[in-house]
Amino acid sequence: MTAPGKIAVNSPMTFQDAPRLCAAGIACFIRDGSPLMVVDCAGVTQADSSGLAVLIEWRRWAHQQGRHLKFVNLPAQVSAIAHLSEVSEVLADSVA
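Structure (tokenized):
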């Protein structure tokens, strides 16, 4: 966490990192407790489809908790995979 309501991802988002990263992100969201969390992915050094799966899981978890996530600085690889998979809207800011 970089500040209340803000989390920075500073690691790879790949298959081998996904389980640890997913759990660590949810732990940060729980610890912070903010209704809106901004997830900054500028520090992601490498990403693949597992990174996209982590972001989707975080969004699903937040929705179940009545909370919102806003993703910023998504890696180009994740955005491209989301577009090809037709799930880009899942990553879009859904805060009303």
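The longest helix spans residues 49-64. The radius of gyration is 12 Å.
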